[in-house]
From TrEMBL:
Protein name stated in the entry: Serine hydroxymethyltransferase
Keyword Methyltransferase: yes
UniProt cross-references to PROSITE patterns, sorted A to Z: SHMT (PS00096)
Similarity field: Belongs to the SHMT family.
Length: 434
């Protein structure tokens, strides 16, 4: 048995159970990924012992010579990856990164214009009980009812009407690219800062497969654990020296105390990996997989049961399934997929008639499967499995009874076959409970 296994078998057992769950099922939560073993090795290191308040070369603690180098490497690598002049790699999470930028650039009571949560925005873009909604005056833009896409003329109109100090572009559940140049034009026209939160699509940007917001935005925030495939955490990028200075003091001491240098080491490893050809090829498969999923769902006969793809397709790593016209709701669809070993999350769609805990949508993403080695044939198979289980569920009377047990058993076997054919962390037996 391992040291953790001996010392704390309860926790070790749970970590092993989670590893087995990830290995045996298919993770299709759009905000998740399977990070590299090397990233986890850095995170599980002695760097977790070190206090390092401040920034490299300007710390409030002694003994920082090695973590200084770790943090300098992380900064240099992420600047080069995204072609940005300044970077802060200390935010503990995406939410902390966004809070820090708001703290740096605007004052409580100022107006922020961001994408409505109900239309695919993030909590930190102005949800009522989030810090953003409590501290700032929020004016939200949504999506057009006919296309389910953001209408830049409407963003412009709202900006002129509300005169925000900060405009936020970025999303958690949206399947199309944003017009960063137009967002910047609108921000400039009202004297607002433009913050782009690229948390979801950062990996695509790093691979050169999605337009970069860095040349357009005053400041760009991101998580490091979604398409980017690193450890859980946040980053802030800018090309403006004055903004960089304000952001640094907003992160520390404004929002946080000691940085998580073990996580920053994991970020550095991930930024190094993201600069490789292998990473670009993986992001390409991520995109192809999502496009294939949208196409197959769109062409399958689930449309006859009121199940469609929101916006008719995708430009990114996720597909939004619209269940507004189906007897199947988001919660039931999530449970059905879970019953065959596919993990996704229910998600509200624009103008959702069902309550937030139920919803009329699913958000399905391909990054984790791409990290597992899925190529187009495997993505086609998983798309067909998803279409079949949704069809079986929706065809059952009122969906109350779920799908037929033999259909579930057969589809579960097909999921298991895909999982077995794409082993996760194949060379590490006990990656969690070492
Ligand atoms: N920004 C966006 C667009 C997100 O989707 C998320 C997380 O889902 C976050 C920020 C917050 O990241 P974290 O969960 O690390 O705080």
């Amino acid at each position: 048995s391992t040291p953790l296994g001996q010392l704390d078998p309860e926790i070790a057992g749970l970590i092993d159970a989670e590893l087995a769950r990830q290995r045996e099922g298919l993770e299709m939560i759009a905000s998740e990924n399977h990070t590299a073993s090397a990233v986890m090795a850095a995170q599980g290191s002695v760097l977790t012992n070190k206090y390092a308040e401040g920034y490299p070369g300007r710390r409030y603690y002694g003994g920082c010579e090695h973590v200084d180098e770790v943090e300098r490497l992380a900064i240099a690598r992420v600047k080069s990856l995204f072609d940005a002049e300044f970077a802060n790699v200390q935010p503990h999470s995406g939410a902390q990164a966004n809070a820090s930028v708001m703290h740096a650039l605007i004052r409580p009571g100022d107006t922020v214009l961001g994408l409505d949560l109900a239309a695919g925005g993030h909590l930190t873009h102005g949800m009522k009980i989030n810090f953003s909604g409590r501290l700032y005056n929020i004016a939200a833009y949504g999506v057009r009812e006919d296309t389910n896409c953001i209408d830049m003329a409407e963003v412009d109109r709202l900006a002129q009407e509300h005169q925000p100090k900060l405009i936020v572009a970025g999303w958690s559940a949206y399947s199309r690219q944003l017009d960063f140049a137009e967002f910047r034009r609108i921000a400039d026209s009202v004297g607002a800062y433009l913050m782009v939160d690229m948390a979801h699509f950062a990996g695509l940007v790093a691979a050169g497969l999605h337009p970069s917001p860095v040349p357009h935005a005053h400041v760009v925030t991101s998580t490091t654990h979604k398409t980017l495939g690193g450890p859980r955490g946040g980053i802030i990028l800018t090309n403006d020296a004055d903004i960089a200075k304000k952001v640094n003091s907003a992160v520390f001491p404004g929002q946080q105390g000691g940085p998580l240098e073990h996580v920053i080491a994991g970020k550095a490893v991930a930024f190094g990996l993201a600069a490789s050809e292998t990473f670009v090829e993986k992001q390409q498969r991520t995109l192809t997989g999502a496009a294939e999923l949208a196409r197959r769902l769109g062409e399958s006969d689930v449309a006859d049961l009121g199940i469609t793809v929101l916006t008719g397709g995708t430009d990114v790593h996720l597909v939004l399934v619209d269940l507004r016209n189906s007897v199947l709701d988001g919660g039931q669809a999530e449970d059905l997929l879970a019953s065959i070993g596919i993990t996704v999350n229910r998600n509200a769609v624009p103008n959702d008639p069902r309550p937030p805990m139920v919803t009329s949508g699913l958000r399905i993403g391909t990054p984790a499967l791409a990290s597992r080695g899925f190529g187009s044939a495997a993505f086609a198979e998983v798309a067909d499995i998803i279409a079949e289980v949704l069809k079986a569920g929706a065809a059952e009377a009122g969906a109350e009874s779920g799908a037929e047990p033999q259909v579930i058993a057969e589809l579960s076997d097909r999921v298991s076959a895909l999982a077995t054919a794409h082993p996760l962390y194949p060379t590490m037996n006990e990656i969690g409970a070492r």
